[in-house]
Amino acid sequence: MTARSLQSAERLCKEKGLTFTPLRRQVYGLISADKTPIGAYELLDRLKKQRANAAPVTVYRALDFLQEAGLVHRIDALHAYAACEVDRTDHGGLMLVCNRCKTVTEFENPGLEQQIAETALQHEFHASEDLVEIRGLCSLCADIS
After folding, report:
1. If we measure between CA atoms, which residue out of 75, 84, 52, 66 comes closest to residue 24?
2. Angle between helices 56-68 and 22-33 (to 10 degrees)
3. What is the pTM of this model?
4. Do 11 and 71 fall into the same domain?
5. Worst-scoring range by mean pLDDT, 31-40, 70-79, 120-129?
6. CATH number for the domain harbouring residue 108
7. How is 58-113 classified by DSSP, letter by letter?
8. 97 & 78 share domain
9. How far is C-alpha 41 from the chain's CA centre?
10. Quick one: 72 and 119 in the same domain?
11. How many other CB atoms are found less than 10 A from the CB of residue 69?
12. Total domains, the chain
């Protein structure tokens, strides 16, 4: 975890009037320290090294908060969580997920966000979020295929 990502998370919570508790900070730190998305039970195992009494509900509550605050994304394709790479919380985006090494790259794409919103509106559909995941191979993994 970089000090910058932690400072950004603290600032964004403060701007939204949200409480960034020590537990939430620890869970966010564990997620942002990893280069690949991390599952809830792996988070729990790591958290137990710092908090012996941590339980699954502890992790899931912290994850719910971090997602709602826009600090982490749930990567459905991997059943895991990744720290948000964008320095604001009011965005959707495009996630490129490597099937082999599990790296995730996040991009802001206002045009894509607008297109999703317009398409949903045209079909009288209320999208729950406009995060798009695309699975494939990153350039490093494609080179070794």
Report:
1. 66
2. 80
3. 0.83
4. yes
5. 120-129
6. 3.30.1490.190
7. HHHHHHHHHHHTTSEEEETTTTEEEE--SS-SS--EEEEEETTT--EEEE--HHHH
8. no
9. 16
10. no
11. 18
12. 2
pLDDT at 105 over 80: yes
Strand, coil or helix: 136: strand
Which range is least confidently modeled, 34-38, 91-95, 108-112, 120-124?
91-95
Clarify whether residues 34 and 16 are in a common domain: yes
- The per-residue pLDDT for 130 is 64
Q: Domain check: are 79 and 108 in the same one? A: no
CA distance 14 to 11: 5
pLDDT at 109 over 90: no
Phi-psi region of 99 (alpha: psi -120 to 50; beta: other; left: phi over 0): alpha
Same-domain check for residues 24 and 65: yes
The residue range of the domain holding 129 is: 93-143
